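new request in #modeling-help
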Amino acid sequence: MGLHPQEVKDMLVGMMQLFIDHKAALLQALAAGGEGYGLELIDRVKQQTNGAITLLQGRVYPALRELEQEGFVKSYESDPLPERGGRPRRYYKLTAEGRRAATAQRNAASSLFQLGWEGR
Amino acid sequence: MSLEMLAAILSLIGAVFPIWQFKRSRNDFLAQRKALEEIDTMRLYQQAARLHDLSRATWAKPVETDPTPFKIVDPKSNVIFVGDPSHLDSDHQVDFKKLVRLMKAYSLTERQRLQTTQRCEKVFQVWSAVLPARINNEVLGDYLEDIHRRIAAGESRSLVFLRLVWAVFWTGVDAVGYFVKAIGRSKSTN
């Protein structure tokens, strides 16, 4: 059974998602677009990267909880919503420390890419 | 009946049921897509023929004083699409009987969508009993919201079903991790 090249590409992209640093991506998404909840942050990353990076829903929530424990984000619950079966949304926003970490991360990444361009 | 026999019957049902469910929902999906394509080709005002408008539209027979034979009302935007026989040109020519038949077929699939939504909600309701409150509210809530969006976008029932299984699996994994961390924290404080 032969696979279509696009299917192979999709599979490889899917495997690549496993290696994406979810915590770093979430920090950047929160820094860029302000507060948001899990599903919204996944959409935000997908939109900002034109679909190149899709965060795995199963890894996003543990990553957000870790960021909260490390003091980079804080969270609060909204009112219960009918489309969630009466469950509230949990919104996350960056703390001052989280904002500093996101800026440092962005500076480090842009220096790295600059190094790549200069090396050509 | 021996235990082995019962296990064999259960695994047979377990193997056949998903295939049957997948085939059924695929057939529904194909029928729905065909109906929508037909509606689209009828070119009843291009806007009305789009999936999003039709999913919200209801059709109604007008009262006798109304000069128009039929109208389709979009309750959300209050747009009324009218087919007026005196102004029918080739672009707006509509076989209303056919349209009504197709819209009835479409409303059947709408009922199926509602059923799928209710089933998903029931499964999540049962599953939420064993999950910690935070995972139930945050993670399961997000999965349910996502499923609602997919159903509204017209995704087939088999894909929604897969999403449901995926959600149950990942929230289970998440809950185990959550408990393990909570136990680790309580031990370290002791």
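bot summary: The mean pLDDT of chain A is 85.
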